[in-house]
Write a structure and sequence with these properties.
Layout (H helix, E strand, L loop, with lengths): L2 E6 L4 H9 L1 H5 L3 E6 L2 H10 L5 E5 L7 H10 L6 E7 L3 H9 L4 E5 L3 H45 L14 E8 L7 E7 L4 E9 L3 H20 L4 H15 L6 E9 L4 E7 L5 E3 L5 E3 L19 E4 L5 E5 L1 H4 L10 H10 L6 H16 L8 E8 L1
Parallel strand pairs: 1-2, 1-3, 3-4, 4-5
Antiparallel strand pairs: 6-15, 7-8, 8-9, 9-10, 10-13, 11-12, 11-14, 14-15
Helix pairs in contact: 3-4, 7-8
């Protein structure tokens, strides 16, 4: 596309001078000139040709002078439209005013066309830069819009209705929370009914951040849920999910997973911990017991792995608190980690609270600890309590 230049001058011979000097660029389609003889004609021309790039305007003209025209152009709020003002060398007061009012550059009469050519080329460079910035800004705004929609979708696929199993109110209390560090995150939690006596519970943390982690999170969550609902054991569910995820993994992405099958009637939880943070059991007497360290590796790295399972027992009044490393590894402004000890202490103070209250207490304590520091990782918690 040619650079479109509007010349505004009441001297008729300037039109011939410009078309003659820039004839080669005009023939090559690099420049296209338009001409007006005062500010009013120039405004009419700008309304007709909205893609004009450069205005080469005399300051002293009848009907509407160049300074008034410059004011009208500023009102258009088009940073890519550049004005080069022209006046006599002795008219420095008006030239200075024009520059202060936003003119790109100036030329003095009699016009040095070689110098004017360099000024136009400089203006074109600025125009291209501004338009590239505008394009980048538009793409960024579009991406922000897409991320906002992705955030809503991500939140929508996680269970958000509590209590989730109203018919089990006398047996089970359950609550969860996920706060992404960015617009979208890689952590997820899930719970679902398997049969009349069992529910599946899961918490996981995908490697990486942003859109790739969010996509891998959605795939992992869907796969584990679809497999778990079929009633496979915890070890079988994670073994099968790992085989599929490892075959489809891109850029060596993986996920740490704690998946358990909870017996609503007996309080027994059969679980597989694949490289995830060991959950804590908050006993009814206020003790906090850490579950064993994971013996199985992360999910999605190697498709030949066979996973194992273990069991733990929740007595009446016991609560199992599952969390991702965004909790205990959260840092304050002094780069100190929140740590397991602080987490254990706040859990001990929550012995008589329900799951929702316990999660809120941890989040409040964590927020107080990290005040002023940027959240560096997703913060996710899932708690179940035997009633």
């Amino acid at each position: 596309m040619p650079t479109k230049i509007l010349s505004v001058d009441d001297e008729m011979d300037l039109e011939l001078l410009l078309t003659q000097y820039f004839r080669r660029k005009i023939r090559k389609g690099e420049y296209e000139f338009f001409f007006a003889h005062n500010g009013l004609e120039a405004l009419t021309m700008l309304l007709k040709h909205k893609d004009i790039d450069i205005i080469l305007s005399d300051i002293n003209m009848p009907e509407m002078d160049g300074l008034t025209l410059l004011t009208k152009i500023n009102e258009m709020q088009n940073p890519a439209l550049k004005c080069i003002m022209v006046s006599a060398y002795g008219d420095m007061g008006n030239i200075r005013q024009a520059m202060n009012n936003g003119a790109f550059d100036f030329a003095t009469k009699p016009i040095d066309l070689d110098d004017l050519s360099r000024t136009i080329e400089k203006a074109i460079e600025q125009i291209h830069y501004i338009r590239q910035m505008q394009e980048d800004s538009n793409q960024l705004q579009s991406l922000k819009g897409d991320l906002a929609v992705a955030h809503e979708i991500q939140q929508a696929i996680l269970p958000r209705i509590f209590p989730p199993f109203p018919e089990e109110t006398g047996f089970l209390d359950i609550a969860a929370s996920m706060e992404a560090a960015k617009d979208i995150g890689g952590d997820f939690y899930d719970f679902f009914r398997i049969d009349e006596d069992h529910i599946g519970v899961c918490i996981a943390d995908v490697s990486g951040k942003g859109i790739p982690a969010a996509i891998f999170m959605a795939v992992s969550r869907t796969l584990i849920r679809a497999t778990g609902i079929q009633g496979d054991s915890a070890a079988e569910c994670i073994t099968y999910s790992n085989k599929l995820l490892a075959k489809e993994s891109v850029n060596c992405m993986f996920v740490t997973v704690f998946y358990g099958i909870y017996n609503l009637r007996t309080g027994e939880l059969t679980y597989t911990n694949a490289g995830h943070n060991p959950p804590y059991i908050l006993k009814s007497d206020g003790q906090v017991v850490e579950t064993p360290m994971p013996q199985d590796p992360i999910v999605g790295a190697f498709d030949f792995l066979e996973y194992h399972q273990a069991t733990l027992q929740l007595d009446k009044g016991d609560m199992l608190i599952m969390f991702t490393d965004g909790v205990n590894e959260a840092m304050n402004t002094e780069l100190e980690e929140y740590g397991d000890e602080r987490l254990i202490n706040i859990l001990k103070q929550s012995v008589n609270k329900d799951c929702q209250e316990t999660i809120k207490a941890v989040k409040a304590d964590l927020s107080a600890f990290t005040t002023g520091a940027e959240q560096s990782d997703d913060i996710t918690m899932l708690a179940i309590k035997r009633l």
